[in-house]
Amino acid sequence: MNIKILSDDIVNKIAAGEVLERPSSAVKELVENSIDANADEINIFIRDGGKSEIIVSDNGDGINSNELGLALRRHATSKLSLENLNNISSLGFRGEALPSIASVSEMLIKTKTKNEAQGTSLEICSGVAKAIKPVNQKKGTHITVRNLFFSTPARLKFLKSENYESLTIKKITQKLAMCNFKVSFNLHINNKLILTTKKKKDETNHNLLKNRVTEILGNQYLENCIYFDETVEGFKFLGYLGVPTFHYSNTNNQFLFVNGRVIQDKSLNVLFKLAYRDFISYDRFPQFVCFINCPRSEVDVNVHPTKNEVRFKDIKSLRSRIINLVKNNLKKVNHFASTINTKKAIDKFSRSPSQRSIELKDISTDSSSNTESINEKLKSKEINEEKILPLGFAKSQFHKTYIISETNDGIIVVDQHAAHERIVYEKIKSEIYKKKITTQILLIPVVIDLDKSTIDVLGDLLDRVKSYGLVIEPFGVDSIIVREIPGILSGCDVKILTLDIINELIENNDSKSVEEQINKVCSKMACHGSIRAGREMQINEMNDLLRKMESTPFSGQCNHGRPTYVELKLNDIERLFGRK
Ligand code: ADP
Ligand code: MG
């Protein structure tokens, strides 16, 4: 075989293989072109999962009629020059998307700039362009892509069901719309409006973003997130972080943007998971919308044809910045638990209207005594009014497991074990980190027999165990003696606690970072030192727990990300009883 230069057509088809994985990639490229052209209104129409038709129409700058042919040539771009090679501000710059899409589809472009009286259209079939014609078109660009991949059957076969392809288009559109929160988007799939976002003028970025998050993810998302806006050494971080109890089984609602680009980079998303790991079980995912803006010289955007990934000059610093950002912001959450659980509770309480009306009748016969009891309640509320405590006052315990407390505007149900576990966990952890662990000397030291293999490896671990507040010494040939335990764990079963911690350290010796190890040990200890479900509590003990929850960071969730309490607002209760 002789060596020869590949024809443009083949080169474009190869590029299409890289740039276009599936219909959603074409949507992304076309929308990014619209954004680069300063459009503030973008309409997308999809048919058959994008396989038979994709239309992206914008009100942007348009393409000059004498340049339209050029736009379809490979490596033809209006966005890159020698001067801005290392300082790219546009989303596109490789000049690949249009020729790639055109080489594997039937494409029709209609476009008009503001200075032209008339629009121009160009039809391309499988990379072969027809004549450029005048056309009726308002300022902007309207691109129709039909029968994508029809000329590359291998790729066509690799596509999934219409539903799946439509869903990925919806997801990428959500991301693009979130990222470009000043632009209005409408996505129609098979003539149905699936997503709509409005442009709003004269609003602050915070308000625009807030509005966009609600448009795309709904009110509930916003309710369960905290806003952040911080700049650390030239890196600006802005967005929303979900509270730890607001987790998901997948990463769909994780939105990450770098310098205005939609980024789908697992290695970055994983940092968020790391930062939440203390609060969320390993198989659940935190929710966030995060914009990272940094000097362009700090990040290389040209690492992948689809531009989904970027490379940071100093990824190490960025990693710790992201982890610190998340941790510091989550500290502010304190005892806040996700409202999702409250909603679930209300849904459980709510009954069918017919059932409710019967029960209301029953209650109404006894309405006088009902009012009386409410008036009593009101009095006690007045007394407490002077001191507003977020978690209210304990009223009683039920099933020896849950505490009911009355707050200013509702009631709270606390899972006593989960809540106490979190408090003990945070306390032990902070004592260990400050190297100030308070221990309790056991009146009667506990002797524990161990098997030989455990004794052999234990020697090296005794110092480490001591730093966790467990003072253990060898005792004879095959036993140890426990002399002190962490003060907060007084009353626990010393033998089970010690064996649990020793096993944890032996099993994970060196395989985990010191921090991970400490967290793991704390979590084990917390479990041993907490009030069990099933233990009766006195009112003052319950109030004590509530006050500790209020002052303990992250007390809204236990170590596994489950909520420690749910709240029912009076408003909701009134709704349940049909009073509102
Ligand atoms: P790139 O975006 O990397 O420049 P493309 O192949 O996506 O490459 O687009 C080629 C050129 O066509 C762009 O540089 C731009 O000048 C023009 N273009 C494409 N889409 C639009 C659009 N919607 N509005 C205005 N110009 C466009
Ligand atoms: Mg482009």
How would you describe what is shown here?
This protein has 580 residues and is of the alpha+beta class. The protein is elongated and about 95 Å long. β4 and β5 (128-129) form a beta hairpin. The longest helix is centred in the middle third of the chain and has 19 residues, at 367-385. α2 packs parallel to α6 and α9 packs parallel to α10 (315-331). Strands 1, 2, 3, 4, 5, 6, 7, 8 and 9 form a 9-stranded mixed β-sheet that branches. It has a 5-stranded mixed β-sheet with strand order 10-11-14-12-13, with helices on both faces. The site of magnesium ion (MG) has 5 residues, from α2.
Q: Please report the total strand number as a whole number.
A: 23
End-to-end distance, in Å? 83 Å
Helical content band: 25-40%
Structural class by SSE content:
alpha+beta
Largest sheet: 9 strands, mixed
> Which term fits the overall shape?
elongated
* Uncertain stretches of 5 or more adjacent residues: 351-375, 377-386
Brief descriptors of the model:
binds magnesium ion, single chain, 20 helices, nine-stranded mixed sheet, binds adenosine-5'-diphosphate, 23% strand, alpha+beta
